[in-house]
Amino acid sequence: MHFPLHRALLLTAAVLAGCKSDRPTADNAAAPTAAATVNVTATDFKLDLPASIPAGSVTIHLVNHGKEIHQAQLVRLEEGKTAADLQAAMKQSGPPPSWMKFAGGPTAAAPGQEATSTQVLTPGQYVAICAIPSPDGVPHVMKGMVQPFEVTGGTAAVALPAASDTVRLVDYAFEQSRPLPAGHHTILIDNAGPQPHEIVLLKLAPGKSVEDFGTWATTGGMQGPPPAMPAGGLAVIDSGGNAVLEADLSPGEYGLICFMPDTKDGKPHFMHGMMKQIKVE
Prior knowledge:
Elements: H1 5-17, E1 36-43, E2 46-48, E3 52-54, E4 56-64, E5 73-77, H2 83-89, E6 100-102, E7 114-121, E8 124-129, E9 146-152, E10 165-170, E11 173-176, E12 183-191, E13 197-204, H3 210-217, E14 228-237, E15 242-249, E16 252-257, E17 275-280
Parallel strand pairs: 1-4, 3-9, 10-12
Antiparallel strand pairs: 1-2, 4-7, 5-6, 5-8, 7-15, 8-9, 10-11, 12-15, 13-14, 13-16, 16-17
């Protein structure tokens, strides 16, 4: 079974739309010197960012001035495809077309809050989209929240900034370099699996598990209080890709989860075991 392509992008987004994050606004710290910084402003329903971005290591700093949760999923378009082609493809069934390359980006910025990720962007045509749906079920990308931009060649640094931690994404697990302590983190996310993956950080409610959240978000119909709140993450990134996300973690129980549908059976990856519960102290 295959989900329509928009479900592949929207499953996590729909989950996050049902929650209100208690993640604090990011500090206005200086961006890593090795990376260019691009500010992206989200409103209802528009993403505002430069039309041209230099190739290399790029920090995407998303600020949400809207009334709904937003994200900046980065997608590279190949074979001369356009934003209109992407919107049309998202209505189709089956896996994503080969000309769509998922490049990461910050995810799940609540109203008035911020999210940040750094990834290496190669020259070409891209779009930034928000796949999170409104209460009416219509994804923001279908309401015009899709913004083309070009990545141009240049002399920008191509190295990612130094990271305090590493998490490898594999089929189907999260492999940490060490337990995560409380505090501010720059986490290198390395997709070592053969499929696109994402990582969503969840702060769990007392007595709840990451599996409880997966059930609530999918087969549970999002009924009742959510078993967790989003605490940051990296949007979908292709196999072999890597990026650095920033996260502020307070002490407590957390979950790591991937909702990306599998290319073979369409089931969210957490149903194949791609979820993990951790304790932050």
